[in-house]
UniProtKB/TrEMBL annotation:
Bilayer-crossing regions: 55-77, 89-107
Protein name as it appears in the record: NADH-ubiquinone oxidoreductase chain 3
Family note: Belongs to the complex I subunit 3 family.
Bilayer topology term: Multi-pass membrane protein
Domain of life: Eukaryota
Keyword Mitochondrion: yes
Amino acid sequence: MKLLFYSLVCFALLLVLCLVVYAISFSLEKSFEDKGGSFECGFQPFSGSGFTFSMPFFVISLMFLLFDVEILLVCFYPLFYSFSFYSSLIIWLVLFFVLLATLFEWFKGVLSWV
């Protein structure tokens, strides 16, 4: 029984070793120069891949996510819970924090380009 177990373990290790050697040899054989280049739907890129990151676009996308979550909280919260003093307080707190965050961004100059 031990002989069968040891032979299966040796076979499994040999198989893993063969697969690793095959993968390494295949990756070294196919080292193209285009692996590090950008990919645009199968065509050659029109310009270099060193574009600068657009910070205003990033800020707008974050604000969109913030307001999207705020709309979900404000609009759908009363549908799932009974509308009481506490639920209206939570809605007003969410609106207050969103307004406070928007004013903070505005005074810090993040929204100066808008």
